[in-house]
Structure formats: C-alpha cells, structure tokens
Design goal:
The protein has helices at residues 7-20, 31-36, 44-52, 78-93, 102-105, 117-120, 145-154, 157-170, 181-186, 194-202, 224-237, 252-260; strands at residues 23-24, 59-60, 65-68, 112-115, 173-175, 208-210, 243-245, 248-250. The chain is mainly α.
Length: 264
C-alpha cells in the first residue's frame, strides 16, 4: 500500500484493518490520518499502535471477540476453537501492560480473527462459546500508566475507585472505608494522569492509612518468568553490583564480609 502513495487507497486499507481490530469506520478515515500513514516512513506496526488507541472517528465494540475463521477449520471444531481462542485472547489482555494487537495475537496463522459482535453474531457459532473481550476490568489491569488510561476511558467512578484502591495498596497504604468522591472525580478529569495520581498518593492523603514498614517485594500477580528477568535487570542497573549465590543476591560489601568470615 505504501508503494501506491495514494491516500484514498490507504484510507480503504485502514478501514479493513479497523474491522480486523473489532471496530468499523462510519464516515470514512480522516484524510490527514490516511495521508500520514501513506508516507514512506510509515509502518504497519505504527498503524496498529495508532489504532489500538481507539481513535474517535471509528466505533469500537466492547463485545468484539477472537473467534475461529470458519474457512480454515472443519465445522465440528468451530465452537471449541472459538471458546479457546476467545478465552486465551482475553487472558492476554490482563497479562500484558500495553495495547492489545489483535492482528497478531488473534491470528494463529490465519486460523482466528478478531470480530465485532455484529459480525460474529451472524455466523453459525454457538454464542455460549464466544468469549467477548469486554470492557477493561479495574481489578485486573496493571497499576500502571496504561492501566490507568484504560480505566479512565470508561469514565466510571466505581471502576476508578477500584483502581485507586489497588494503587494505594501498591504504594504501601491501606484505603479507609471509602475513597472521597471528590478525589475519585479528579482522577477522571481531562487533566488526570498516572503521574499525577502517583504524586497525589505520595503526599499520603489522610483518607488512607500508610505503613512505615512497607517494603518493595515481588508482586504475587507477576509470573515467575517475569520476576526472574526483572531480577537480572535490577542487579545490572542498581546502585551496587550484586552477585547471585545460593544465599541470594549479595552486594560488594556483603561479599567482603562473607569472605572475612570464611563463608566464601
């Protein structure tokens, strides 16, 4: 498509990509968006990233689901495949701290595709086997800038309250009986951000209890593989260089002390 250098053709291509990402374009792709993605320096990955932000010129279906491509498998496994694909794709949404990539993560060599409800509802599939992605769950998203943005987009005080409770706990605090409605509403304003939330909570508001013995420990929600990789990153970038032994990580001072005591 880039070789054509044609914004109109690119716009038509982008409409198809939007459909494969669970959305549709009611009034055409904006000319400036098509033009930008027609430039030689544009890339498919960059287009996918831009569309994962769900621009408002397209409509995005929260009931979109990863389902089987019926042209690729025998009919007797369609329903099973749709349930497996949909369940797996929804799990991916809460195992990564970043935008989903349906074009890659719901494909499996062309066997699956991401469809909005109006599309998969017309197919000969059992609806009980379809697993829609659904709206972001404030109890499951990462407590991170991306997770904050996903919850913010819902503009729900109830969902934001759930996210804020988790954010307080991640900062070593314990929320009181309730989080002030005014504070919740401030985190749904146009100027709200994860950085701003972190700064607000760092001031230790009185509506929460803050522990003086809080410590940085592994997140029980993280996988062992991620924790293992992060240990390597921390040990290589920390203030001190650490050596991993069967007793754990040791700083240079700890190693010298151990050698002086004859412990290696």
């Amino acid at each position: 498509m880039l070789g054509l250098k044609n914004s109109t053709a690119m716009g038509q291509f982008i409409e198809r990509v939007v459909e494969h990402m669970g959305g549709f374009v009611p009034d055409g792709v904006p000319e400036d968006f098509a033009f930008i993605n027609s430039h030689p320096y544009a890339s498919y990955r960059n287009l996918e990233t831009l569309l994962s932000a769900h621009p408002d010129w397209a409509r995005w279906d929260l009931q979109a689901a990863c389902v089987v491509d019926q042209s690729s498998l025998k009919s007797e496994v369609w329903d099973t495949a749709s349930w497996v694909f949909g369940t797996h794709f929804r799990e991916i949404a809460y195992l990564k701290d970043g935008p989903l990539r349906p074009l890659e993560e719901c494909n499996w060599h062309g066997v699956a595709k991401f469809e909005r409800e109006s599309s998969w509802a017309q197919r000969d599939l059992k609806t009980s086997c379809i697993v829609p992605l659904g709206a972001p769950d404030a109890q499951k998203v990462f407590v991170s800038p991306y997770g904050f943005n996903m919850v913010w987009l819902r503009q729900s005080k109830d969902e934001m309250s759930k996210f804020l409770k988790r954010a307080v706990e991640h900062m070593g605090g314990e929320p009181g009986a309730y989080i002030p409605s005014k504070f919740v509403q401030s985190q749904l304003s146009e100027n709200a951000s994860f950085r701003g939330l972190s700064q607000d909570l760092a001031r230790h508001p009185t509506w929460a209890h803050w522990s003086s013995t809080a410590a940085c420990v592994p997140n029980p929600e993280a996988t062992a593989a991620v924790v293992g990789n992060t240990i390597g990153v921390v040990c290589s970038k920390g203030r001190h260089q650490y050596t991993l032994t069967r007793w754990g990580a040791r700083s240079p001072m700890e190693r010298r002390k151990a050698r002086s005591e004859g412990h290696g």
